[in-house]
Description:
Oligomer: heterodimer
Structural class of chain A: alpha/beta
Distance between the termini of chain B: 65 Å
Number of domains of chain A: 1
CATH architecture of the domain at 414-514 in chain B: 2-Layer Sandwich
Largest sheet of chain B: 2 strands, antiparallel
Order of helices and strands of chain A: HEHEEHEHEHHEEEHEEEHHEEEHHE
CATH superfamily of chain A: LarA, N-terminal domain
Structural class of chain B: mainly alpha
Largest interface: A-B, 40 and 47 residues
Shape of chain A: elongated
Number of strands of chain B: 10
CATH topology of the domain at 414-514 in chain B: Alpha-Beta Plaits
Amino acid sequence: MRDMDRRTFLLSTGRWLAVASLAPAVSGCARALRWSESQGRTVSEEDVGTTATTSSEASTTSTTGSVTSSGSTSSTAAAPIPDLVVIRGDSPDKNVRAALAKLGGMERFVEPDARVVVKPNVLTGRPPEYATTTNPIVVATVVRLCLEAGAAEVTVLDYPTSSPRAAFKESGLAQAVGEAGGKLKYLSSRNFERVEIPEGEAITSWPLVSDVLEADTFINLPIAKTHGLAGLTLAMKNLMGIMGDPRSQIHLDYPKKITDLNTVVKPHLVILDAYRVLMRNGPTGGNLGDVEMPKTVVAGTSQVAIDAYGATIMGWRPSDLPSLVEAAGRGLGEIELSRYRVVEGTA
Amino acid sequence: MKLHRYRRIFQILFLVIFLALLTFTVWPLGTIFLGGFLLADPLLALNSVANGVVRWELALALPVLLSPLFFGRAFCGYVCPLGFMVELLGPRRERHPGPRARKILRRVPLFGLVAVLLLILFGSAVFLVFDPLSLFTRTATTLAYPAVDRGLRLAGDVLYLAPPLRGSVDSVTEVLTGRLVFANGLAYKLQLVMLVMFLGVVAISYVERRLWCRHLCPLGALLGLVGRRAIYGRVVNDSACVACEACAAACPMDAVRDGGRSTDCSRCQLGLECADACSQDAIRWGRRPRKQHVHDPSRRALLKAGGLAFVGGFFLFTGLGRVQRDAHLIRPPGARFELDFMATCARCGQCMKVCPTNVIQPAVFDAGVEGFFTPQMDYRRSYCDWNCNECGRVCPTQAIRELTLEEKHLKVIGRAYIDHNTCIPWSEDRDCLVCQELCPIPDKAIVFTTGGGGQGRGAGQGAGQGGQTSEGIKLPHVVPQRCIGCGVCEYNCPVANEAAIRVRAIEQTGLLSR
Lengths: 347, 514
């Protein structure tokens, strides 16, 4: 030990102590912050509101059956806006554009300078041909439409079950979103905040992605796939991707829990990608033989309506999906398709 | 030539290159080659060659191995990042524990080399735990990068409190995720053990200055052996020397002998602190004359060391229990069979560094003393990502062989087993099926039957096996012929603590035919 007098000794000890106490102080702050966050907040209608047109209004004036348009993508201004638009065609890009045109244009959902959040299904990383993740062309087109409507920024996010960089890269989404001018967001624990679910029966609160709650426009962009537990994964289940951990608990008592979530999070616009769909071994897939190509896109504003129609594309009756029955029972929407005003077309 | 004045710059440069290469060792690797330092390590290369692993990249080790013929242990003074750390963090002034201890310590390198040779013959690479480059890679991987990960995360969390900064934090996060910040948050088993080991290497410098580099480092010993009669090195002008021994006191490597006149080239790292300390200006760097003294340990010392090392090595080996296959000791995909694996694994931790999910963890004592720091899959911590085969690509010794992604998708490293006593559908009569959902095998290695007397596929089987369960409950089953043991099911199982589906090591069957 070097010779040092008491004064130097005390000074150096003091310095070291100051440095050493810095780390606990910082982590203490972090803990305090987390504590305050965990007090939770209740989502008000302003945060995640439904859009101006409500499906309940429309359903009273619904036409039975569907109106098949002649294939032109322009809709007449006088015609009432349908609840569901179904477009088939060889180009995913044109399908989405046609669907949005019939739904009143993206301007209906995205105001100038709006901050838009888009939630595709990026369960894990697989190339788009396997229909495991939302078609990158569909996502890119939605991003472009939002920007064309004047959105300030379009954030594309999901919380994949495998490493996020790999998932977004392998699914082709990282590239597609970048090229379309959107912003990719990798989620971290700081992006979740605990949200009360006042109408929750199985879950009364859960950490959700705060960007979704704060967005001016939230667009749900699922892909249609089979699913072992749920039967099918469509729009309602896609919202699991904005839930924080412990997410795997959602599988226990799944129909109730996914319905609980859908009582607080109501996307302004839902576009179901059924260009390629996964008919077996979903939701992860991996066999090209399990993929079918209905080349369809379904757009609307009601999660339940989209799921009910999506089920028919997959060859299911809406009433066969327990989560859909649960959601309908709790007043989230109708599962009887004849109650909706459906417009079908080609692009 | 005053190149030695710039020694510190060389050290910093190599440290920066080393850390830069290690930092870029993340998924996706691309085509740049990142394990350069470890491939150029002659000790690793010798062990690999002895075990029949020959690849052209090992040629990198040849110049390093042969350099001591010309320059002695310049590698230790100019390149080795661990040597730099020891130098930087250790004491500056000469200290040693006394002449008797010193005499013994000077024999350690030879002793160590004989022990290394014996271990190679016995097929154990456990000595590579002490290889300086392996040790430094391992320390940086398990300590530095998790610290960076946590620090950046914390900084992001704090900055996120200011809403105007959120956009920039998000953009930075987008760039860093999967590179420096990881979804799970990097953490390694018993990081404290690695810290103690690294600090120990530095701390023994307080017993004798740079004790690690002088006497203990096995790579240093190997280079020293090659460089015993180095062509270039410290040259003393005999007529000018006044035998003041200032050089001996200045030498950080204990390489000065005979009162300053001769040099132990098996230790001299060409730092030439001696020349700077010489009041007579009698020391310079140059071609060593034939007549210059060569320090030569007596033959008796060599024999003694050899004999002792043989006995020591023998007992060391028998003391290391061969790993009995533990059901939960699962090696990364592409790993050789256990005995080969133990013989080749460099314990460097590059596979752990590159792993994007942090599933590869050091086996601290799970694989026996001999298997210290060999890679092991910890499926409660994480899972093996379907899209990644990088561990085999960074392994410097091919203890984990490189697999193409197609091969990796078929590579069986274990098999999942469901514990019906804890599995939620089987024991609690509730739907769950997380494992089946996330199973990444294209045909699903986990399928389900419907419980009770219910309908649906496999109803007959379900009726028999799930007799206790209600109608319609979906019961998971593993299809053994399809499971590769990636651990996605175990990681995601919602049963707390020990998962109800666990991957166990099975006798390795190579690739599945599909």
